[in-house]
Write a structure and sequence with these properties.
Layout lengths: L1 H16 L3 E3 L5 E3 L7 E4 L5 E4 L20 E5 L13 E4 L4 E3 L20 H10 L2 E4 L7 H6 L5 H10 L4 E4 L1 H7 L4 E3 L5 E3 L1 H28 L9
Antiparallel strand pairs: 1-2, 2-3, 3-4, 5-6, 6-7, 8-9, 10-11
Length: 233
């Protein structure tokens, strides 16, 4: 009898060890992990946290699989804004497009910055003149009928979204930048070229300043030779 009870206890422990879901004393719910170290963690208020078990560099974490290219993922709402409770402040579509109400790039405090040097206005202007912009077309994600029939599309957005289907995209080329402004190009682990648009904007700032200095010098020369009326103060 004792042997049977011992065996039963061992079986119960084995089942518990393999459990996929657990409700903790503080009402947190763990799915995929008993102690909350990884897997899906749900708070009593309904907030959800994804904790990956894999901590390797460049490994996938918190991957959300989209069934549709326009499906919304990782949605952030401002639950305290009573006038816009339905607004999605940030979300990622299934095709990788990111939508947000604003984008702020945080400069990390204490980040090590060595060999800092100003950008030459002349170099910046020469670089910008070598950068080419491109129009390009992509395959439509949905049809007009899909948009009109979707219960998730606001009626006021239907006409605009259908019109957007015929619009071309505009952007820079990673290949072009790699030869002109390599500091603005990065390579991801899947061998795709990624553009650092903040670097391009910074270069634009210095290029505009250089161009403005040249304009002011030209204006002064023309004024001194009587070819241009002095600028009114």
């Amino acid at each position: 009898m004792k042997k049977a009870l011992f065996t039963f206890a061992i079986l119960l422990l084995a089942v518990a060890a393999q459990a996929q879901i657990k409700v903790h004393d503080d009402n947190w719910v763990s799915i995929g992990c008993l102690n909350g170290d990884f897997g899906l963690q749900v708070t009593p208020s309904g907030l959800t946290y994804f904790r990956t078990q894999n901590h390797n560099d460049f490994s996938w974490a918190n991957l959300s699989m989209a069934n549709k290219s326009t499906q919304k993922h990782w949605i952030v709402q401002n639950q305290y804004d009573t006038n816009h409770l339905g607004n999605h402040l940030f979300y990622v579509s299934g095709n990788g497009q990111v939508h947000s109400v604003s984008t702020l790039i945080t400069e990390i405090r204490g980040a090590s910055k060595s060999n800092v040097e100003p950008i030459s206005g002349g170099d910046a202007l020469a670089t910008i003149l070598e950068i080419n912009g491109y129009f390009y077309e992509t395959d439509p994600l949905v049809t007009p009928e899909d948009i009109e029939s979707s219960e998730y599309v606001d009626e006021e957005a239907v006409s605009g979204m259908i019109e957007d289907l015929g619009k071309r995209s505009v952007g820079l080329s990673g290949e072009n930048l790699a030869g002109v402004f390599p500091d603005a190009v990065r390579t991801d682990p899947e061998a795709r070229l990624c553009i650092d648009y903040n670097a391009v904007v910074t270069m634009l700032v210095e290029a505009v300043k250089q161009q403005q200095a040249e304009i002011e010098l030209l204006r002064k020369t023309l004024e001194e030779n009587g070819l241009l009326e002095p600028e009114k103060q």
